[in-house]
């Protein structure tokens, strides 16, 4: 586990440097006085003035250290505050709800229970039962309700208790969420955020271990992002809420307790951009969500063996950030995709197609893709381990690719 | 309160013994409505269950009860007697679907469906009145309905202006749909086109009571809902022709009529899909009032859908949520007895849809949907309830579509006798009769309206014909509200910044 946090630490350090000469900035370093107002230059060139920095003060004390890690240990001299990923999501959500009264949350057990993964903890007390709405167990209908509310002026955040439950809402997500802006000729916008934890957990069984990114990726009209660190979780949550497009935010069940130090100031992460985790020369490894940590763990081994992998967390599952990816391919000429979704029709498959279409001339070897097995996730721990890509497999793949 | 039992027997159509649902039963049923848990309702549960309206618009010289099915005869004998609630409650609807010598597989418990032409008990001869039996805790009283009026001072339901407005709206709906059919067969529009002929009373009766900020959500049979709400005939016709001047820029089509200006929230192709969207719009209204503190926000949402949808999960889920949170919504069921070729009676265990309202803690009302004035009365109450914040209502309008399910439907399955029966109850003819008989207006006025509407529809067709088709560049324009959603291209710029993109020729 220490390796993972080290990866997080490395990621946090690296993510602060812009990965490309493109004009995007995730945040601007600024005076760290709490309550200072300053500008955040966003990738579209607009400048956002942070209204208040007061919420940063409340949350430092909330950061519960579940796993102590010396590498990423909180030293008070470092800027920002430390918290866990679910708290980062909560912070992002809370800040947006304070900023805009139209932002509301709907989902099962989001209110009084605080969310089954505590992402909405305390929000119902603060904002009331109508803004943090406990819905009955009717995913299709409350997702549709969220869409109707979005069409008529609100900005709902719909939570699927587990991403897999959103299969029940597929009708609304595909037909209405994705399509209504188009079929209405642009008259109605649907600024909804649909989020929830997915991915393979610890022996949760087949139905609770689903990865829906591959099912949703064909729906035209939606954007999909996957968060992997507290930093980008908060950033993506905020960006998704502020976006006028419907956004599906994929979280991962096993990543909720990751701890990281994040800036105090207001920032967002661009929804369409990928994140450079570790620059390198020999091979480009594209990944997202939990697999980022397996990749970083493998990266340690690879570095020891003399390889220099470039690790990119693609973050934006739809649309792909072909600029970051392209630059990387042009540099390393070898691509390995490591993903957690199924092999058939997964994100990796789409990514291979996109890269081959656009950067075929730059490739020295066929793209390799490591995905989960096309198997309903078994309950047994040993089998479950095998369905998901493990660091050892990543190391072998890189060695093979770099021959 | 005078108890007037009026029920009308549907001839020729077998159904659940709704006639048994006489007013004596209502108190019983109201007593059995369970208190919802948890007790979030502070107001007493309204349980006005079934309004059986007399039918002032029915033709006095209606044809005798038409019963092609011998099994309906014994029911007619039963009608005159009192019916026990237990008999009503205990009788499960049989699943018998064996057809004997008729193509319509009608279960053999032959019971007339409510709302036929024959009145069994006449009311006071000022037949303009609607009388209904109320249970103890009725909340709203329609200000127009008065009881025990004497003959000499008939109380009309509508004024002349209202009457003409209703008439014009219904004629517009009818003329427009007839023109759609013509245009379809001439090859000006394609795909699935579902026409509303015969059901105009429901659309006019409800939508003409709304304000501009109220929302309407419909299904694929949405042309007339859009027209009633105020979308211009030109915009709808252009949309059907797929022209860029259509209300949805030609991108939606027949089944996706939207209008931001008039708050028409669609137009949905899958049934049941619109109901959660309507619930969401009602949620927004409540949210605006309570969270955004717009205290005078009393926007109401109407969700229109059919009998087939009432077997869909989204219907029930939304009834639950709307009643739970007392959302300002009215669920209007346009029960035209057929879901393409599936008879409502063959698809539904308990065909009385209005009964499903009280099961969720909201009033369920049944109304004759071929009679615009009755629909309007019920609509006033239901919309009034929603505006006052008392919660949702389920209104079942018994209506009928004169044409097939869509223009592609050969409509062979429905009994011609049934069609003739309902054709005789054409809502436009009935309103015309009402208006002229009560001296609200003259034939000449009505003919003038007919002519005017014809011109409007002709002009709409001309406009649509002359409108341009959408250019290629329109293809990608409305996929995302924020076109950055198309992503960053290999050159580092957002794809939407690429000039070729707006021409629709760029790859995405």
UniProtKB/TrEMBL annotation, chain A:
GO MF annotation: an example: pyruvate dehydrogenase (acetyl-transferring) activity
Q: Which cofactor does it need?
A: thiamine diphosphate
InterPro entries in the cross-refs: THDP-binding, Transketo_C/PFOR_II, Transketolase-like_Pyr-bd, Transketolase_C
Q: Which UniProt keywords apply?
A: Chloroplast, Metal-binding, Oxidoreductase, Plastid, Potassium, Pyruvate, Thiamine pyrophosphate, Transit peptide
The UniProt catalytic activity note for this protein reads: N(6)-[(R)-lipoyl]-L-lysyl-[protein] + pyruvate + H(+) = N(6)-[(R)-S(8)-acetyldihydrolipoyl]-L-lysyl-[protein] + CO2
Domain Transketolase-like pyrimidine-binding, which positions?
A: 83-258
**Localization per record:** Plastid, Chloroplast
Entry-linked Gene3D superfamilies:
3.40.50.920, 3.40.50.970
EC code(s) of this entry: 1.2.4.1
Gene Ontology cellular-component terms listed? chloroplast
For whether the record's keyword set contains Zinc, the answer is no
- Enzyme group, top EC level? oxidoreductase
Its assembly, as annotated, is: Tetramer of 2 alpha and 2 beta subunits.
PANTHER family per the UniProt record, alphabetical:
PYRUVATE DEHYDROGENASE E1 COMPONENT BETA SUBUNIT, PYRUVATE DEHYDROGENASE E1 COMPONENT SUBUNIT BETA
Read off the NCBIfam families from this record. PRK09212.1
In UniProt terms, what function does this protein have?
The pyruvate dehydrogenase complex catalyzes the overall conversion of pyruvate to acetyl-CoA and CO(2). It contains multiple copies of three enzymatic components: pyruvate dehydrogenase (E1), dihydrolipoamide acetyltransferase (E2) and lipoamide dehydrogenase (E3).
Designated name of the protein? pyruvate dehydrogenase (acetyl-transferring)
UniProtKB/TrEMBL annotation, chain B:
Which positions fall inside the Dehydrogenase E1 component domain?
169-470
Task: Report the top EC class in one word.
Answer: oxidoreductase
Look up keyword Oxidoreductase and say if it applies: yes
Q: GO:BP terms for this protein?
A: pyruvate decarboxylation to acetyl-CoA
Q: Which reaction does it catalyse?
A: N(6)-[(R)-lipoyl]-L-lysyl-[protein] + pyruvate + H(+) = N(6)-[(R)-S(8)-acetyldihydrolipoyl]-L-lysyl-[protein] + CO2
Needed cofactors, names only, are:
thiamine diphosphate
EC code(s) of this entry = 1.2.4.1
Assembly, per entry: Tetramer of 2 alpha and 2 beta subunits.
What's the stated role of this polypeptide?
Answer: The pyruvate dehydrogenase complex catalyzes the overall conversion of pyruvate to acetyl-CoA and CO(2). It contains multiple copies of three enzymatic components: pyruvate dehydrogenase (E1), dihydrolipoamide acetyltransferase (E2) and lipoamide dehydrogenase (E3).
- Name of this protein: Pyruvate dehydrogenase E1 component subunit alpha
**Taxonomic lineage per UniProt?**
Eukaryota, Viridiplantae, Streptophyta, Embryophyta, Tracheophyta
